[in-house]
Amino acid sequence: MDIIKAIFFGIIEGITEWMPISSTAHMDILNRFLPLNVTEDFYEVFEVVIQLGAILALLIVFWKKVWPFPGNRNEKGIFALIKKDKFYLWINIVIACLPAIIYELFLDDVFTFVTPENKMTIIGISLVLVGFVFLVVESIVRNRRPSIESTAKLTVVHALIIGLAQLVAAVFPGVSRSGVTIIAALLLGISRTAAVEFTFELAIPVMFGASLMKLLKYSGAISFYEILILVTGCLSAFIVSLFIIRFVLSYIKKHTFSVFGIYRILMGIIVLTLLR
Question: How far, in Å, CA of 208 to CA of 48, rounded?
């Protein structure tokens, strides 16, 4: 039965990780209705492993966009080894990651106000508030021409501001990392397509790093049956993510984020009414 449940968890992870609706919130909601018969420590490892499946799918879809090698033989110095545009892209990605790295290393244990008792309430409030923010931001930028149409035009300042925005999601469950980075990007005058692309590109080191740190902290033994659960959930998240990532990239070229804002508000109301 847990193998079947793992498939559902992977599906939800693969869908919600790439939409600005908070995968954390949806995984917690699913765990309320369809809990895995595992220990709390193993469940944390399970969440990390299926997230790695989603990241692997992202790497496949975005490989050409982020892989920096080989460089240009006609260039001198570092650009003979590394493509110039990818070099500057990764500089921006690293800068955007710095706030999250500092938070994980030095501040994660400081913000401990989230407890099992109040977590669903915080998730519900976060879903509603960020949903309204999406609607407000879309009303602001709807008739405004973006000043930046491509991730290649992003500056170090843009990257730092977007990176700082991620901290809101790190502190408050239900906010959505992709949600706050997209909102910050839109307010900076970045197009919806470029905002989504940079958010996805930024997810590669952020999600991989966070997942790796959690895995390294786990010291328990894992049985063969638990390995099957991990593999099933990871594979499910990987397959679904391959389709959802492409869908979101295609969808946002012709639509706004308003539908995600409305969905968040409705889901937040349900959480606050029925699950807190």
Answer: 9
Q: Phi first, then psi: what are they for 28, rounded to 5°?
A: -65, -40
Q: Are 260 and 19 in contact (CB under 8 A)?
A: yes
Task: Quickly list DSSP for 173-230.
Answer: TTS-HHHHHHHHHHHTTB-HHHHHHHHHHHHHHHHHHHHHHHHHH--S---HHHHHHH
Q: Are the C-beta atoms of residues 272 and 128 closer than 8 Å to each other?
A: yes
CB 150 within 8 A of CB 88: no
CA-based nearest residue to 244, from 5, 8, 17 = 17
Place of tokens 């959930």: 233
Phi and psi angles of residue 148, each rounded to the nearest 5 degrees, phi first: -130, 115
The pLDDT profile of the chain, 276 residues, written as one tens digit per residue, is 899 999 999 999 999 999 999 999 999 999 998 999 988 888 988 998 999 999 999 999 999 999 998 888 788 788 888 998 999 999 999 999 999 888 877 877 777 788 888 999 999 999 999 999 999 999 999 889 999 999 999 999 999 999 999 999 988 999 999 999 999 999 999 999 999 999 999 999 988 887 777 777 777 778 889 899 999 999 999 999 999 999 999 999 999 999 999 999 999 999 999 887
- Report field, pTM of the whole predicted structure over 0.90: yes
One-letter amino acid of 26: H
d(CA 179, CA 20): 4
d(CA 250, CA 16): 16
Tally Cβ neighbours within 10 Å of residue 72: 12
